[in-house]
């Protein structure tokens, strides 16, 4: 069985990240959490999502183990911020040229991880 990384494809992954961060950076609720350069954030997300979705271990090769909770602890992430992040991700996924089943499978990867990042 192909991984989500293979099923989605690199072009859709890049589009997802572009769409997602356009939404994030325009969101009054969560844009303030993203203080680094947008292109740097997008590059790290690409490396992470490639790995997270079953593709090459790009993030680990460049930065070491993801340790996502530890990396997010310096940021005040509330339940509201988590919900907004998920809303942006869902909207970004909807822009992709994928089957509805694949869109659902992709979105379903995120809620548990997003909940794990909540620290407020």
What can you tell me about this protein's structure?
The chain has helices at 4-8, 10-25, 38-52, 58-63, 68-72, 79-94, 100-107, 111-117. It has 120 residues and is mainly α. The protein has one domain: Globins (Globin-like, Orthogonal Bundle). The protein starts with a helix and ends with a helix. The relative contact order is 0.18.
Could you give the topology of this structure?
Blueprint: H1 4-8, H2 10-25, H3 38-52, H4 58-63, H5 68-72, H6 79-94, H7 100-107, H8 111-117
Helix content: 55-70%
Give me the secondary-structure category: mainly alpha
For the CA atoms, what is the radius of gyration? Answer: 14 Å
Main beta-sheet annotation = none
Low-pLDDT ranges: none
Number of helices: 8
Briefly summarize what is shown:
The chain is an all-alpha fold. The chain has helices spanning 4-8, 10-25, 38-52, 58-63, 68-72, 79-94, 100-107, 111-117.
């Amino acid at each position: 069985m192909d991984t989500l990384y293979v099923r989605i494809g690199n072009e859709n992954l890049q589009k997802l990240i572009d769409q997602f961060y356009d939404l994030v950076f325009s969101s009054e609720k969560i844009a303030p959490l993203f203080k680094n350069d947008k292109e740097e954030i997008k590059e790290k997300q690409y490396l992470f999502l490639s790995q997270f979705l079953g593709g090459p271990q790009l993030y680990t090769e460049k930065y070491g183990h993801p340790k996502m909770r530890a990396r997010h602890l310096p940021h005040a992430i509330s339940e509201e911020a988590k919900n907004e992040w998920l809303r942006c991700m869902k909207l970004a996924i909807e822009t992709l040229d994928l089957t509805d089943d694949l869109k659902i499978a992709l979105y379903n990867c995120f809620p548990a991880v997003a909940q794990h990042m909540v620290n407020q």
